[in-house]
Write a structure and sequence with these properties.
- The protein is mainly beta.
- The protein folds into 3 domains: 45 residues; 162 residues, S-adenosyl-L-methionine-dependent methyltransferases; 124 residues, OmpA-like domain (60s Ribosomal Protein L30, Chain: A, 2-Layer Sandwich).
- Helices cover 10% and strands 41% of the residues.
- The protein has 3 helices and 23 strands.
- Strands 6, 7, 11, 13, 14, 16 and 17 form a 7-stranded mixed sheet that branches. A 5-stranded antiparallel sheet has the order 8-9-10-12-15, with no helix packed on it.
- The radius of gyration is 40 Å and the shape is elongated.
Length: 374
Amino acid sequence: MSVDGVTVASGSPSTAIALAVGFNTISVVVTASDPSFTQTYTLTLSRATAVIPPTPTPAPDVPASGGTVPNTSAVTPPVDVVNRDTNGAVLVNGSESVSRLVPNSIDTGWVASMDGLQVSVSMEKSDGEPERMSATGEMQAVQGGRIVVSGSGYSVSSIVEVFVIPNGPTGRSAVLGPRTDVAGVVGAVYLGQAQVNAAGVLSHTFFVPLSIDPGQYVLQINGISPTDDSLSVNLTAKVLEASKPPKMRAGLVQRAAFYNGLSDVISSDGKKKLRQLVRGLPKNATGVQVEITGVSVSLDTLDENLALAQTRAKKVANYLTKQGVQGKYTVTVTAAFTVDGAERSLRASSSAVTGPDGKPLTTATINYLVPEGT
């Protein structure tokens, strides 16, 4: 069978299929018949016009804070700032402009202002405590510390980038980590960027890398004015070496069996042991953890053993807290009871001392850390 020059194979005796091919359409004609009826169905499939999607515009690179390539580069700081003749200056389009510089209210940094621009910088330790300026007005930032920058007078939704530029002796070289030798100024370290809000206001905290070398630097804050002028605030700064925590060693003091017989009365020997516990804890101990196991396995009922074990543990804990032993307290209660009362024993808790007969004893253990050599 042939339709418009296209040959189509026939199906079963009761079915015939034909194709009609045009430039933009393909027609499929299906004929079906049986003893009771014959009917023709036509299904038309249209060939869609090809659409070529536009080439997408690449999204701009947004550098992450701390070391990736910034949108702009650091600029050469003013000579008078580099030479420490002044503690700060503002560059507009690369030229030094008349600006005002005053220390902030807590003496941790400077407030620079010029026309509509105002930028405040404050230094903090790694725990957020203030880091005071030096006697000469040089801002000081410890390795791992924080640089808190706030400002106004920037172009709405623009990006502000922050660098530190070495200009004095450092321990080795200021170049560190991936891509921190920023184009434009040799040795400049890129600390990151922040976006100005819809009101032209900036507020962001930057972090001083732990790996940066101690020494003298210029802190540089670069942004754009509402009139598209480049603004560069330059302030003298010094990176201080972070104090290294001392190496620590673990210590432990432990005493057991504080009570008279089957009672909750602390014996004279038990009081002596508690005093030894307190005296055995060094004054410079840190990370103190107190583990108390209250034990009773010799009374006639389980309820009695539980009640006595709890009371014994509580009394030891109260004594230690009243003596000023501060730390994390963990209390365990150990009790046992057998129906005939002939054998009353329990495998000791890992934190409990056992007596000569293998039974666990009420025990107090204090774990702590102290600097090596003490």
